[in-house]
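Hi support team,

I submitted a single chain yesterday and got back a structure, but I'm not sure I'm reading the token output correctly. Could someone confirm the output below corresponds to the sequence I sent? I've pasted both exactly as they appear in my results page.

Thanks,
R.
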Amino acid sequence: MSEPKASRPHWPDALQNAPDATSGLKPWSWAVERLENSHNYWISTARLEGRPHLMVVWGIWWENAFWFSTGPRTRKAKNIAANPHCVIGTEKADEAVILEGVAQEIKDQAVWKEIAGFYDRKYGGEILPLLEASGGSIFRVEPEVAFGQDEHATNFVESATRWQFAGK
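Hi R., thanks for writing in. Yes, this is the structure output for that exact sequence:
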């Protein structure tokens, strides 16, 4: 995957006087660091009737995508089955990274084993036996667009960044 293109997000009330198109924008490496290091992540999905559902999950950033597991009877799994569009957010709102993408269920057991190693190192325990016993699922969310905001930046407003991914 090539580096996503950084630009200003649509934020007309705050960014109307931004000095130029690139001043203060965060590099993609800033977002990746937060995606890799977050312990908890927020996931937002939509119920059949369109009402939002927000939940916390554990996950990993690997191979340019966000990966997480959940049981097949969970609300988020049911929502994804009906509408795979979702939003993922890192745990720290003061250094937020938000991804919009489409969740794809991964059924390949070889990939499960590889993902389990990353999960186990990050969270401790052994996730693979839990997934197999519960009939759980692993999902991959490849970002289409991502946003970042850094309250610790010299200029918080100018640090607001949108990354767009090629072909999305």
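A quick pointer for reading it: The chain has a mean pLDDT of 88. Let us know if anything else looks off.

Best,
Support desk
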